[in-house]
Amino acid sequence: MARFDPEQAEKLRRQAADGRKLDIHTDHLSLEGTIDVSGTLDAQDALDLDTAINRLAAHRKAAGSTESLDVRRAQAAGDLARGQDTLPFDQDAQDAQEREGGFETGLRPSSTTEGIKITRVIDLHIHQAGVFGDPHATVGRAGRKPVLLETIREWCGAPDTVINLKPVRDLAEHLHVAGYEHPHRLVEQDDLIDHHCVFPWCTRAAERCDHDHVTPYQRGGPTCSCNSAPLCRGHHRLKTHGRWTYDVVDRGTYVWHSPHGHTYRRDHTGTEPLPPPSSQRP
To answer: Over the stretch 91-144, which tens digit does the pLDDT of each residue have?
Structure first.
């Protein structure tokens, strides 16, 4: 709808912006002394708020709090409301924060004289037609989610936004290196094509996966586009030590073979069990 009826899409975008709100339900104080909070924020504001709460929750952990992450995030919201910031931590404390897991993918903590500075990174994908004002180009992507280009323009025009341009990745390009290690451009190509671990039914994001040689490197498998795929750590080990194997049908499509004789087809649409060879018609 956004692509083929841009006027209606722009109308809905403005309506959504007018519908932003933040409700603190003070009239519904629970017996336990808690109050529900709900709302709809602009994506940039929501991500910045999430970043700040993650940071303060991690600082509470580093300072010795034994509460759960959910509780510390709730407490961090109160810290923000009272204007309380955190004191600088040494490297050990910062390492503890990173181990805690409070930092989401895309956060990059760095020490400063005033504490810890965190930046939220949003990957935006825009076709060149949209960059140069083609009226038929109305939709881009934030990560894997479609977003109207007008919204992306507003985000990029915000005063505190820092824009880092990256080269266009040709997903059809065949990349090949002589060594064992996957270069960054091959890893990024895998992530953009497969999006997830390619093991049957796995939903782990490709950015958090290992990058596997489909045919093992020790057996002559090259480090290249046609022999590389993202596997989460557990399924990588299962493939290496658990007698699971898989073949590349084409880029982004794989056929897995279990040690018990079952076969599965995995591509961007999901996982499909395949019938055993004996039941297939010639």
So the answer is: 444 444 444 433 333 333 333 334 444 455 677 778 777 777 777 788 888 776
- What token pair was written down for 100? 């805690």
Residue 152: band (very low, low, confident or very high) from pLDDT cuts 50, 70, 90 = confident
Secondary structure element (H or E) that encloses residue 266, with its range: strand 263-267
Give the number of other CB atoms < 10 A from CB of residue 228: 24
| CB hemisphere CA count around 253 (13 angstroms) | 5
Q: Interhelix angle for 43-62 vs 91-100, to 10°? A: 120
Q: Structure pTM?
A: 0.53
- Pairing verdict, β 228-231 and 245-250: unpaired
Cα–Cα distance between 106 and 103 in angstroms, integer? 8
CA separation for the pair 143, 125 (Å, rounded): 7
Residue type, 120: R
Contact (Cβ atoms closer than 8 angstroms) between residue 243 and residue 268:
no
User: How many helices (H) and strands (E) are present in the chain, helices listed first?
Assistant: 8, 15
Q: Where are any strands of DSSP class E within 65-213?
A: 110-112, 115-117, 124-125, 139-142, 145-148, 176-177, 210-213
* Nearest residue to 58 (alpha-carbon basis) of 98, 90, 107: 98
Cα end-to-end span (Å), the chain: 43
- Look at residue 188 and give its three-state secondary structure: helix
- Long-range pairs for 97-100 at CB < 8 Å and ≥24 separation? 97/58, 97/59, 97/61, 97/62, 98/58, 100/58, 100/61, 100/62, 100/69
- Rounded CA gap, 49 and 37, in Å? 14
